[in-house]
Amino acid sequence: MSILADLLNTVFERRYRFGLARQDDRPFEDLTADLIGATGEVTGQAVARQLLDRYEGWSDEDRLAFFRHLATAMDVQPEAVRAALAAYEEAPGKASYRAFAAAAEPPRQELIRRLNMVPGATHLLVRMRADLLRLGRGEEALMALDLDFRHLFASWFNRGFLVLRPISWESPAAILEKIIAYEAVHAIDSWDDLRRRLQPADRRCFAFFHPAMPDEPLIFVEVALTQGVATSVQALLAEDRTLRAADQADTANFYSISNCQAGLAGISFGNSLIKQVAADLSQALPGLKTFVTLSPMPGFRRWLADQGLDRDDMTETQQRQLGAHYLTRAKRGDGQPLDPVARFHLGNGALVHALNAGADTSPKGLKQSHGLMVNYLYDLARVSQNHERFAAAQEVAMSGEVRGLTSAAESALKETTE
């Protein structure tokens, strides 16, 4: 770990100690009021510790009551915001701006900050937000509360605080167990399976960690070093595949990217992770010239059904054509791609490179996309340009091959509707 990471780790751990506070049995409403009103750091930490300890022992019903209290009793006061804004508009300046900023921030944001004063609290707050997302679905006031968590987490977990660490077969067992548990794309079904993904010279795995959660990966990516672009995930993960030396590879295939913390949903790490890993690998292995993914298409089968199309009635070429159309032309109401994985990679500046029929023959792959997978190409010299065009006008970068597949699909779809 770098010197900067060590320094940040020291800062975030804050290893000073304070005496165990006497158990406070007052309602949590009183404790939250005390925490907001606390003027001393030690007193504030003691109250925060009481709240966090109590939260961990609560039922879902208790936690929901706590969230509703934060959402209602600790919300912004519209009249105060309007008055502060009027005062600022009348006399812009430091004091009037400070007053407006204070009025516009709900007290619950400061409460969350003060809860985070307790050493080790960051991970619990991440789990707390996961509970909020799970329990508060459909309640507008609770979704507003979630925006406060998300606002704070976006600062606490920005790229400058994240530490990139390689994961290998020699990594601590506790970390390896979490890699198995958090793998979300291609399940790891045994320790031998994990060994095959980590130990060979032509395999890599990298994860982002945060100094306040040093034993919890936030997101990780698995990489296969190959000659040529991979077109089948089963071939990549086969027990009897041919092993090769890392310096013989010309392509890095990112075949699995897994977010690990439900409480950090919506906080983007993948963009930075892929680009950082690609840059590090290109420096360590100069023979690597191509950086691609082998990605699922989780909504393709459903989209086909919505179009009244049956996979059994089409050839592999037709499947690839329709897959290209789905990725590049099927849109949500806001103009973004319908496919969630496409939104992620295209938003990162990747290019739709190739469609591969029969690339994932697992039950999950067949259920999601009839086995179709896609390679997204990360051209490090063009990702910024691709990203800007996609962000400005939803312009999808694609290879000539994919463009041809898309055109053929549009002609075929037009014929079926005439």
UniProtKB/TrEMBL annotation:
* Malonyl-CoA decarboxylase C-terminal domain sequence ranges: 160-316, 320-379
One Pfam entry name: MCD
Q: Which residues form the Malonyl-CoA decarboxylase N-terminal domain?
A: 76-157
Q: Which PANTHER family match?
A: MALONYL-COA DECARBOXYLASE, MITOCHONDRIAL, PTHR28641
* Name listed for the protein in its UniProt record: Decarboxylase
UniProt organism field: Ponticoccus alexandrii
